[in-house]
Amino acid sequence: MSFGEDSQDSEKDPVVEAYKKDIDRSLIRENLKLTVEERFRKAMALARFADELRRAGREARRPKK
Amino acid sequence: MTDFDALLAALTSHEVAFIVVGGAAGIAHGSARLTEDLDIVYDRSSGNLVRLVAALSEHNPYLRGVPPGLPFHWDLTTLRRGLNFTLVTSLGDIDLLGEIPGGGSYSDLRSGAVELNLFGTQCLCLSVAQLIRAKRAAGRPRDLEALAELEAIEEELS
Question: Of A54, A63, B9, B96, which is the most exposed, with the fewest CB atoms less than 10 Å away?
Answer without folding.
Answer: A63
